[in-house]
Design brief:
Layout (H helix, E strand, L loop, with lengths): L1 H17 L8 H15 L4 H14 L4 H14 L1 H21 L2 H16 L5 H16 L8 H14 L1
Length: 161
């Protein structure tokens, strides 16, 4: 039983990692099929699914659109599952901010921006997040530019692109 569970978790991780590798006309079907599989197995393999999604967003940033679509499809099937993905990514965002891991912050903010399109989060929520980045910039002394504030502006701009 343990071997079967480990094998299934390995296959789930592999499916998540590989989705979107081939920009084929069947991408939409592949995303839908993956979301069905993940929703079915989410309860029993929640940790594996969430950990793999988190790693994919952070380590495969060129596929953030694919993974945000998967998260949106999961949310459409079960909003509790979607809420767990959003909560996880919010936690990762907070930790990345504390560490000053700006590359991760940028990708996660892009992930959240794409969640607006899937109706997983509202546009006002995203704008509130972006506003948080811009508040320190608005409060800076005129003529004084800091690297951190420049980074905040860059992240806000790339989030909204």
């Amino acid at each position: 039983m343990v071997d079967e569970s480990a094998d299934l978790e390995s296959r789930l991780s592999s499916l998540i990692i590989k989705v979107g590798d081939k920009n084929a006309p069947t991408l939409q079907n592949n995303l839908e099929a993956l979301s069905v599989v993940l929703e079915k197995d989410f309860t029993n393999h929640e940790t594996t699914v969430l950990r793999t999604l988190r790693q994919c967003v952070l380590e495969l940033p060129w596929k953030v659109t694919v993974y945000s679509t998967v998260a949106g499809l999961l949310n459409a099937k079960n909003n509790e599952t979607g809420a767990k993905v959003i909560t996880l990514m919010h936690g990762v965002l907070c930790k990345s901010l504390i560490k000053g891991d700006w590359c991760s912050v940028k990708v996660i903010m892009r992930f959240f921006a794409l969640q607006v399109a899937t109706k997983t989060i509202s546009a006002s929520t995203l704008l509130s997040m972006v506003d948080t980045f811009l508040k320190p910039v608005a409060g800076q002394t005129a003529g004084v530019v800091t690297a951190q504030n420049s980074c905040f502006v860059y992240i806000a701009m790339t989030t909204l692109l």
